[in-house]
Amino acid sequence: MTEPRPSLSELFWGMLQVALSAFGGGLSAWSQRIVVEQRRWMSNEQFLTGLTVARLFPGPNQINMAVYIGAEFHGLPGALVALAGMLLLPFSLLMGLGLAYFHFHTIPSVDRVLAGVVAAAAGMALSMGFKILDQYWNDRVALLLAAVVFLALSLFDQRLIPVVLIAGPLAMAWYWPRRQSNP
Amino acid sequence: MSGLLAAAVACEPARLSHLGTLVQVLWQFLSLSLFSLGGGNTLLAEYHHLAVAQFCWLTNTQFADLYALAEAAPGPSSMLVGLLGLGAGWREGPLWALFCAYGAEAAILLPSTLLMVMACLSWKRLELSPWRVAFERGLGPITLGILFAVGLKILRTADTNWAGVAVSVLVCVLMLRTRISPLWFMAVAGVLGGLGVINR
């Protein structure tokens, strides 16, 4: 059973709680725990539908998830309030760090530590493609598409938007669901 | 190559206090928002292009630093856009920088948020539509290609010595094979940097 729908201010504080809980990582696990189990705003099924929509549409997944939760109860105002609740603290903290960075990054010892951190972060960026490679391993057309897109961006230095605008419709045409043989 | 160097020297940081530049920058961020497939990290190479090559707000090194900062800090890593805004406004004082930061983040989030709200409201109809199926299946491989290009771009931008590249590759493997929090990798690599093992 789910509780009655949350008000706008409850939405804001709930998402703030999610953001605070997730300071060590695991944002989507925390939002499930708080939104579904603790506050009972939506059923697990509703939440999982949200994850599907959030992954499908453009925008960062975790942020789209906050939009979904807010929009589910209060439409656009709900989405904006949930977004603000989720982002306000971590974003302000990051901007504080950013201001500190622009003040201090020319200090040699700071720069040396950052060089190390950057090497690790580059490894994280490198892993993103490999992480989803498995699911396409048996689909030759998918691998070909990925290779063409990769070459267009990396080797021929094309911009993302035109590449997606050309490759996207072609890929969609290829993967358009085939009609069933029985009428 | 010399032409490239000359272009790099001639590159003047674009000021957001000029209305024409501001409109141009806003338009770029607003339109990129709708192309942030696969969770937003697909835009990293475009952010690099805008901030380093096109508008000259940041150097390569600064971009790599800010990316690492956004990954290390709690919260969604797409908040990097705020840091780019900070870099864009920094020369005109910290208050203006913060204003640019919040503006940049709003611009990158607004279109995808509006689209997401519309998607939520009409999901029941969309769910079974062939457009949704084709979009989901078709954009997956494209996202794959973009993510590999982004990984390579960030590795090039990091531009560390061989020890740094070895650490990057090791972190990549550990990210795929273990569930260790990446914060540990960044902490250990930071120490290696401080000791001078990794440099750039």
Q: For the report, how would you describe the main beta sheet of chain A?
A: none
Multimer state: heterodimer
Q: How many strands in all of chain B?
A: 0
The number of helical elements of chain A comes to 7
Largest interface: A-B, 92 and 115 residues
For the termini of chain B, the CA-CA separation is 21 Å
**What order do the helices and strands of chain A follow?**
HHHHHHH
Give the % helix of chain B.
over 70%
| Topology order of chain B in helix (H) and strand (E) letters | HHHHHHHHHH
Describe the overall structure.
The complex is a heterodimer of chains A (183) and B (200). Chain A is mainly alpha-helical and 183 residues long. Chain A is 76% helix and 0% strand. Chain A has a domain at 1-104. In chain A, helix 1 (8-21) packs across helix 2. Chain A starts with 7 loop residues before the first helix and ends in a 9-residue tail after the last helix. Chain B has 200 residues and is mainly alpha-helical. Chain B has a domain at 11-127. In chain B, helix 2 runs parallel beside helix 6. Chains A and B meet through helix 3, helix 4, helix 5, helix 6 and helix 7 of A and helix 2, helix 3, helix 4, helix 5 and helix 6 of B.
SSE blueprint and pairings:
The complex is a heterodimer of chains A (183) and B (200).
Chain A: H1 8-21, H2 27-38, H3 44-56, H4 61-104, H5 108-133, H6 140-154, H7 160-174
Chain B: H1 2-10, H2 19-33, H3 44-54, H4 60-72, H5 80-89, H6 94-121, H7 123-126, H8 130-158, H9 162-177, H10 182-194
